[in-house]
Fold this sequence. Notes:
By secondary structure, the protein is mainly α. It has helices spanning 3-10, 17-32, 40-49, 56-63, 68-79, 83-101, 107-113, 119-130, 134-141, 150-166, 175-195. Helix 2 runs antiparallel to helix 10 (150-166).
Amino acid sequence: MISYLQGMVEARPTGDLVELVNEVLELRRRLVQDEIPFPTRTALLQIHTNLLGFQGIRGVAEQTDCSPSHLREHFRVHVGVSPRAYLQAFRAFVAFEQLVRTPGLSIEHVAEAAGYSCRSSLGHAFRRHTGLPPGWVRRALRGNDFSPDVRGLVEAAVRVRQVAEKEGRAAPLPLDRAREIRLRILTTVRELQRRAPPLHSLGRPP
């Protein structure tokens, strides 16, 4: 279902920041529009709204009256990767959110907010999922003022990738791939801005 996250698990040694942001926002859109069925929906909502308090798949399985193995398989079918793989990717996304929206926050506090035990754990995981070190991303964002909404987050990711390409830290995307991602991002952002209530207001479906 989610090609970027599947690629992270199956083949790619490092990720791409713009694609990571795009995939997480697309999944958020699907949650908002009630396109993800129970019990995967419950697991995703808990990850998205209570990352630091997430009790793991066993905890969600108990709440949803299903076995952990069934929940893991259901999650993989509807998200494209295992719950563990998605949780790791989402933590990297949250770290990027923190870098964009709270530029004065130390890297240590960014790590804490995203659920990493220390700065070095953040650095290793963030580089794997984005291809870039968090400290370098912060420097690439310096001097820019992005809006606090999802559009600002996407613009920040695109800006970071442009700087990375200019400095030789990232290979330019093929033109057709860049156009595809741009179209998907625009569609996702438009839908989120038009329809999105806070995720914490999305309860268990009837």
